[in-house]
Amino acid sequence: QVQLVESGGGLVQPGGSLRLSCAASGFTFSIYAMRWFRQAPGKEREFVAHISWSSENTNYADSVKGRFTISRDNAKNTVWLQMNSLKPEDTAVYYCNSRVGGADYWGQGTQVTVSS
């Protein structure tokens, strides 16, 4: 079965950095696009970043463009989200996502808190 497991969240001061990881299993990771989403308290889940299967194409939400970088290693079945210049408004639970066979799959999420 499809499994996505996020890690790397934590508490960081404004201006700091974190690197989130998502380990995938149960499907042919190398042929599927991957995405990161986030959900802040009291808000809807929102798109953060997308990477194509080959890493050739990436795109980002305007709110994170220039600060976050999505990458992947198909040999390791892993996708990362490098987050720099973090702001308090980046505080959220971050989720890894893939659409496999027409169905959306999500990890359990990892909490990112940006606070001094």
Characterization of the model:
The protein is mainly beta and 116 residues long. Helices cover 0% and strands 53% of the residues. It has no helices and eleven strands. The strands form two sheets. Strands 2, 4, 5, 6, 9, 10 and 11 form a seven-stranded mixed sheet that branches. Strands 1-3-8-7 form a four-stranded antiparallel sheet, with no helix packed on it. The protein is globular.
Count of helical regions: 0
Q: Kindly estimate the percentage of residues that lie in beta strands according to DSSP.
A: over 45%
Count of extended strands: 11
Helix proportion range:
under 10%
Coarse shape: globular
Mean pLDDT: 97
Give the structural class: mainly beta
Order of helices and strands: EEEEEEEEEEE
Spans of at least 5 consecutive residues with low confidence: none
